[in-house]
Amino acid sequence: MTRPPTAVQRRVIDAAEPVTGRLRGTPAQLAALVRRGLAFRHPRPPHDHFLTPAGHRIREAPPEPAGEPAVGSPRADTGVFAARVGGDEEPGASGPARAREVHSAWQGLLELRRMTNPDGAVDRPCAWERTHLVRAAALALEAAGHRPAEPDAEGYRVRATPQPDAVAVHGPDGATLTACAVTLEKAGWQTGAHTEPRSRARYLLASPRRV
Predict the structure, then answer these.
(1) 139 domain-assigned
(2) Looking at the record, which segments are called Disordered (predicted)?
(3) Helix, strand, coil share (%) of the chain residues, nearest 5
(4) Would 85 be classed as within a structural domain?
(5) How many domains does the chain have?
(6) Residue spans of the chain under pLDDT 50
(7) In angstroms, rounded to a whole number, what is the distance separating the alpha carbons of residues 84 and 71?
């Protein structure tokens, strides 16, 4: 079993930039994370360090408790940005603060594309998006101003599918689905309209474009 990161390494991982996974730390701390396969040093200047998929998984998991956990103690909020996939969950923060947070996350994702796509392209999804399909598609939609479905409001819903490289986007009407398709295609996704065989409800099947 792989031993967990040290407390110092965990703090560096938790402090990574949302979405991009860009790290800040001493050369020794960053080198230790690289040796453990939790980070990589980008080959192009300024040679910043980023979380690997394994590093992202550690950041997204709750930290191991030190000693005996207190009975009934709540899980601490990690503060990691999460795009809204839409659904019956409680509505989160809204307004200018949320808009700034979403804009920052989208700009960070574009930078991650530039840094990790072999040709530096920003108009095509990167490896991180291909391993976080639902979150990536939801971020593209929210960043473009689409409204996620909430208990008291209609909007888009992004869901995983049996296909390993595609997500389903549901909406309350054809106009919403058409607008979502336009946004996703501009963001480097390919989409197709489909119909549920039983309910006859329309939905989009979207997957990251590779070329």
Answers:
(1) yes
(2) 41-74
(3) 35, 15, 50
(4) no
(5) 2
(6) 1, 63-79, 90
(7) 31
Q: How far apart are CA 103 and CA 99, in angstroms?
A: 6
153 lies in the same domain as 101: yes
| Backbone torsions φ then ψ of 21, nearest 5 degrees | 75, 20
What pLDDT does 75 receive?
A: 33
In the chain, the amino acid numbered 41 is R
Same domain, yes or no, for 49 and 100?
no
The candidate with the shortest Cα–Cα distance to 201, out of 145, 157, 137, 135, is 157
Q: Is the peptide bond before 164 cis (omega within 30 degrees of 0)?
A: no
Residues 103 and 202 in one domain: yes
3-state secondary structure of 114: helix
How far, rounded to the nearest angstrom, does the alpha carbon of residue 16 sit from its chain's CA centroid?
A: 14
Instruction: Determine the Cα–Cα distance for residues 124 and 209; give it in Å rounded to an integer.
Output: 6
SS3 state at 190: strand
Task: Note down the domain range covering 14.
Answer: 7-60
d(CA 146, CA 176): 9
Q: Is residue 118 part of a domain?
A: yes
Give the span between the Cα atoms of 18 and 144, in whole angstroms.
18
